[in-house]
Design brief:
The protein is α+β, with helices and mostly antiparallel strands. It folds into three domains: about 160 residues, BirA Bifunctional Protein, domain 2 (2-Layer Sandwich); about 90 residues, no CATH class; about 270 residues, no CATH class. The protein has 20 helices and ten strands. The strands form three sheets. Strands 1-3-5-4-2 form a five-stranded antiparallel sheet, with helices on both faces. Strands 6-7-8 form a three-stranded antiparallel sheet. It has a two-stranded antiparallel sheet with strand order 9-10. A hairpin with a 5-residue loop joins strand 6 and strand 7.
């Protein structure tokens, strides 16, 4: 059950006319009162002799009793209270009880002998009511309605339990502002799938991903086609910004601008600047030639960064873990923007869902998340990936690693009691799971075919290796469809000069596998990332995975060593490069 408290207004009659009217699309059915402050208010919906003007005058009477200069400029308080789509249809009596509890909890009409405001509850649909109140008490004072929205939400959580309704996860004040009903109706009239506020929030989020300066951020906003207004101090210092869509106009034909903070709490300019405060200055940057220049290379960097970030989220300081979780949101935004069509929809859904999980009341300490933010930057600058070849395979590898990072974020939030964030991260993980299935089908198919062609002695040797190295997982892996893809990867790693036993042990010991659908799939990508093997094996010579022990081995400058534990924590193994 969601109470949605709207901004205060100044025209009681205008709001009543809408609530008792047919609606903008004839969606209002049988509008009528279910409750009121005195239980006897005239009902223009059911009483032919009652009028909207009569009801408005009754509600406004305490306001009009004040001297004109003492009347509040905006005295109309309004909230809708909506049941979940899966809830049963509540009776008028049940909605009346809900209205009385909400209005008392907010302090607008507290009851128990205290002076309250006048209000009515209107029902014009099965699944929700509207409560309208005028914010002057019977004795001429302003009610104690501080944080009325939060108080209404808290009461709604109690009502859900008592009535057996769907229980909404409690919030912590860090959620993005919901679109108003006026914004939703405007989007419907214009044929938009989303409101302007939602479109702007997504565009600004994507512009932030991996950005390192005000200049770069605003360049990205402009390139995305947004109108921008900057707020500056007399000294010329930049203080804030607003954005608007070109075709989102008010009644005067002017663009409707939204400040960053009204899009989401972490999109204000000061909060955005925190993201790049820990990055090196341009003269401290690594040479450009060392950065990934292709979509596939950027995805390999993303896979490595996500792999390391899981450990931080699982064992790191809360403030540092919060920074990594926030940066993971940037990576998802960048990956969704630059991925091929067959994975873009699910990745976009994952990024949208995870947006809520990227914020909590625990303030992130930025700077430690540099690797993830750099990965987001590399994805943006690497450009759009194709859905096949090394691009497609490296996308599957990156999604696989990100799945475990996002799942780790869900566990972290759950442990901290962040119910809404934990739920959002879990939804994002499910979208990543689906995206992975789309991305991995072709590259794993190639590896599976190669594994099926391995000679019998090689297969037998690898089965023995698996049973010796991973006795607790071997039989499960051997029963999975992905076993042959793993066998091909082990053969390729061995031909490249790696110790397959060490690779397997390191891949299993350093991260959990309980959330994996197919352990063999996960090990394929962990081994290929750790051993620096191409994500896509379609162009490899057959002899590399055919079990030829005399095949040409790729030279290595130093041996690979799996992760070791220091001070009770695990450290990453050395790269084979």
């Amino acid at each position: 059950m969601i109470p949605s408290v709207n901004d205060e207004g100044s025209r009681t009659i205008g709001l009543l006319a809408y609530l008792f009217g047919p609606g903008r699309h004839e969606e209002h059915v049988d509008p009528h009162l279910v409750a009121s402050f005195d239980g006897m208010s005239p009902d223009p919906g059911r009483d032919r002799n009652a009028t909207l003007k009569e009801l408005q005058q009754l509600l406004d009477q305490p306001v009009m009793a004040l001297a004109e200069h003492a009347r509040p400029a905006k005295h109309v308080w309004h909230t809708s209270v909506r049941a979940d789509a899966g809830d049963r249809t509540l009776s008028d009596e049940e909605w009346a009880g809900i209205a009385r509890r909400i209005i008392a909890a907010t302090g607008i009409d507290p009851g128990e002998g205290q002076s309250g405001c006048r209000w009515v509850a209107v029902r014009h649909a099965d699944d929700h009511i509207h409560i309208v109140a005028t914010l002057v008490t019977e004795d001429g004072h302003r009610p104690d309605d501080y944080r009325s929205g939060a108080r209404a939400q808290a009461e709604a959580r109690l009502i859900e339990k008592e009535l057996g309704l769907h229980e909404v996860a409690p919030g912590d004040g860090t959620a993005a502002q919901r679109p108003t009903s006026a914004e939703r109706h405007k989007a419907e009239r214009q044929g938009r799938e989303r409101t302007a506020r939602e479109e702007l929030r997504e565009t600004v989020r994507r512009a932030v991903a991996g950005a390192r300066s005000d200049e770069e951020f605003f360049e990205r906003l402009a390139a995305a086609g947004l109108l921008i207004r900057k707020r500056t101090a007399p000294s010329g210092d930049l203080l804030g910004y607003k954005v608007a869509l070109h075709d989102d106009l008010n009644k005067n034909g002017e663009p409707v601008f939204y400040p960053g903070a009204r899009l989401a709490p972490d999109l204000s300019l000061p909060r955005i600047r925190e993201r790049w405060s820990g990055h090196p200055t341009p003269d401290q940057e690594a040479p450009v030639r060392t950065r990934p220049s292709t979509p596939a290379a950027a995805r390999r960097v993303t896979a490595s960064a996500a792999w390391q970030a899981v450990l931080v989220v699982e064992h790191g300081d809360d403030a540092v873990a919060a920074a990594h979780i926030a940066a993971a949101g940037e990576v998802l935004d960048a990956l969704a923007t630059t991925s091929a069509a067959h994975t873009r929809r699910e990745l976009h859904a994952a990024a949208t869902a995870f947006e809520r999980a990227s914020r909590s009341h625990l303030r992130a300490v930025r700077g430690h998340d540099r690797a993830l933010r750099q990965a987001a930057r590399d994805l943006v600058h690497g450009g759009n990936a194709l859905g096949r070849g090394e691009d497609g395979a490296s996308t599957a590898m990156a999604i696989d690693m990100l799945f475990f990072l996002i799942t780790g974020a869900a566990h972290w939030h759950a442990q901290k009691g962040h119910a809404q964030q934990a739920e959002a991260a879990a939804r994002a993980a499910e979208h990543l799971r689906t995206a992975y299935q789309h991305a991995s089908a072709q590259p794993l198919g190639v590896l599976h075919a190669r594994g099926r062609r391995l000679s019998r002695p090689v297969i037998q040797r690898q089965i023995a290796l698996l049973r010796d190295t991973l006795p607790g997982l071997a039989e499960r892996i051997l029963a999975e469809p992905g076993w042959h893809a793993l066998a091909a990867t082990i053969a390729e790693a061995e031909a490249a000069g790696h110790d397959p036993a060490a690779l397997l042990s390191g891949a299993v010991e350093r991260r959990e596998l309980d959330t994996a659908d197919q352990v063999s799939d996960v090990l394929v990508w962990r081994l290929r990332r750790t051993a620096d093997l191409p994500a896509d094996a379609s162009d490899l010579p057959e002899k590399i995975t055919a079990g030829d022990r005399n095949a040409k081995r790729r030279p290595t400058t130093r041996p690979f060593t799996p992760g070791r534990r220091r001070n009770g924590r695990e450290t990453p193994g050395r790269s084979p490069r």
